[in-house]
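Deliverable D4.2, example record:
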Amino acid sequence: MQETDLSLLIRAGEAAGRIAKGFFQSDHQIWEKPDGAGPVTEADIAVNDLLEQTLRSARPEYGWLSEESTDNAARQSSEHVFIIDPIDGTRSFIEGAKTWAHSLAIARNGEITAAVILLPVCDLLYSAAKGEGAHLNGARIAASRQSQIGASQVLATKPTLESKHWKADGAPDFARHHRPSLAYRLALIAEGKFDAMLTLRPSWEWDIAAGALITTEAGGRISDKTGRALRFNGLDPRLNGVVAAGAQLHRPLLQELASA
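Output generated by the structure prediction step:
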């Protein structure tokens, strides 16, 4: 009997974690990507190679979209596509911090159906399959029920607070926090540890795909910054910002944004 897509992602993610930890806090090569796109390390490439071999061997008919692979528009002709960030939070990985993650997802006709976010050093494995709820290390998780913006704890970068993004003169009076990995930020929304997550600049699908399903399966809501539903495997794999929150806070936050 063929293993499920979620079981496959978990197995591949755990193997990726073992590879990445072999490079973590050790000497390894680091390069800068062209056009100021940030750093990439030996670990990113090794994890990407392992994931591509493992996942595509198991599902050769699925397309492939990964931050560390040359993109090929042929993926758009596939009903299913893997959407992968081998290491989300590469700068944190380089610095020796623990909050970097592997982000693995499968999209079917633009909708995420299976997802894993794994933080190997922290022993955290977030997972979801469509219609089956969201889990952390096997235990069910649920998003926040906070409804008041002023009482909310929000994951966002400082530029998100600039007045140009908001209808009023600046952001609402929520408590701002930050984590370097976008995938981890979304997992924390699904877990209910924070009430919302905002990123208002164009966002790569591989940073968001896994967390999008985990958030919604935990009872949260997610959209682009205008409130539109997220669709994946786009020809240009960038999303128009992301707003993720508990179900009662998502709409009030959108209503405060200048772009909504």
